[in-house]
Amino acid sequence: MTQSFARVRVPHVIVALLLALGAVAFALHFLHLRADFPNHSPWNDWAKYTDEGWYGDAAIRYYLRGTWRLPGDFNPAVALPVWPLVEAVLFRFTGVGILAARALTVCVFGCVLCSSFFFLRLRAERRDDRSMRTVFAAAAVLVLAASPFIYVFTRMAILEPLLVLMMLLSLQAAYATRLAQSAWQRAAYAAGVGLLISLMIGTKTTAVFLLPAIAYMLADSAGWRLRRMLRTAAITGGVVAVLCGSYFLVLVHRGYLGDFRYLFTANAYTGITRSTFFKTVGETLTDGMWTGSLTYPLAGLMLVLACVRPRVWRDPVFTSLALWAAGYMTFMAYHANMQPRYYLVVAVPLVLLLLRGALHVAEWNPVAPLALAPLLLLVVGLEGHQTLNFARHPEYTYQVAAVRIERIVEAEPAHSHTVLSISGSNLSLMTGLPSICDDFGTMDLEDRIAAYRPGWFVSWNYVEDDKMAALSRFYTLTRVAEFPAMDDPDRNLMIVYRLDAKEGMKPKRKRPGARLLPMAFTYPQNSVTIR
Predict the structure, then answer these.
(1) SS3 state at 515
(2) 7 contact partners, CB below 8 Å, separation of at least 6
């Protein structure tokens, strides 16, 4: 009886301890949400200057300006509507602000942790040890929550955390088709997978590179029986075709096709070529070390062990995770622009792959858990220390600069408050100032300046020649302030210019295809800005 009691209780104690430590590590994500992306970190990603504002711009503009789209400016929500819709629901209650947006992303990551736990608890074989699965699932939660790489990117209001969550839900829905008791239930699960795939594509179009992993899980759940596989594929593919096709037709009908195409045109400046093939592939693989100096090679070791023990590939969870990571790394190699944030979509499946592989190792050899426990402690200790260091030493250079820019702009109420800047959308999210982008847009910069008549220009470090040429046609630039912010040598000084219209050269409004709002914006009375 004593042995039976220990056999039941000890795993429960271990699971409770691992989950408690994971909860503490997760709680650190909510601290200092206004702080900079950690300066002088190993991950120099320019998204920290722009992306939080860009990809939430539709929601930001809706509550601050009364319109979700500015004709001629950068409007990524046309092609990527899911995240701004989610933010719009939140802003309805909180008002527009960086704190609310980042807290939302951290909550999404909390859902990723919960989903990861349940995903790794899915059965590997008919007679595997359920309690052992639960222990390794809890360990995965702790490793994910303690990772410094995951910490910094899941505290940014960007697209990748939501994409990871939807991918996990899609795989679990695909796995659930095998548990269905009737054909109608299987059809419902398959339709649910189609809905989630559509939402993934609407979150970030690169989700198409994750489809092989979902297709594998669906095929495995169908028992690799051709008729059932075709039926499932027809239902899932049909839902995706109807939803995505209908949305595309709406875009064409509403005249938004130009904004839709522009998102892909703007991202087509890099790509793999025959001459750079091996270099690009090598960089894609080596840059994976960003995700964790220990977890990344250990996940690779698990893949090697799986090749030695082909039986591991029969585990649909392990194989789908491998296809997930391989699929998105294929995108990064194809795009040939290895930004650290892209690797967030790879970091999560690699951690899960590592712990799922460790589960199989533990099943082969009962002594293995004794050897894996110190390794787990080493990984969590080293990575958790760096995460704790980030949490204990926040910096607010970007937020402070944004607030000071807001004060300068509002100190001249008779002057247009519209800010022209590549980081303008981030400034709008932080302060509520109206803005347009000086770099991306379906209209030429001169035409956008003429249409929206900005009163201020905020540049990083210096004014580029093309922007100076466009602005000097209409304005005299007066340098009024500069604020150090962030750590990139090319972008660590925000310079504020007042734009004074030249005599006889006052920019005239142009019609970019839709009625423009007046430049004197009225803020909704029920909008409470969280900064």
Answers:
(1) coil
(2) none
Query: Nearest-CA neighbor of 455 among 414, 497, 499?
Result: 499
Closest CA to 221 of 102, 110, 317: 317
Q: Is the dihedral of CA 432, 437, 441, 444 positive or negative?
A: positive
b/e per residue 367-393 (b: at least 16 CB within 10 A): eebeebeeebeebbeebbebbeebbee
Provide the token pair at 433.
Answer: 């100032």
In SS3 terms, 3-28 reads as HHHHHHHHHHHHHHHHHHHHHHHHHH
pLDDT at 1 over 80: no
Q: Is the pLDDT of residue 521 over 60?
A: no
- 80, with CB counted inside 10 A (0-12, 13-18, 19+), is buried
Torsional sign, CA 64, 65, 66, 71: negative
pTM of the full structure = 0.91
Burial 229-266, CB ≥16 within 10 A → b, else e: bebbbebbbebbeebeeeeeeebeeeebebbbebbeee
* pLDDT per position as a tens digit, 417-442: 999 999 999 999 999 999 999 999 99
Burial class of residue 397 in the structure, from the number of CB atoms within 10 Å of its CB (0-12 exposed, 13-18 middle, 19+ buried): middle
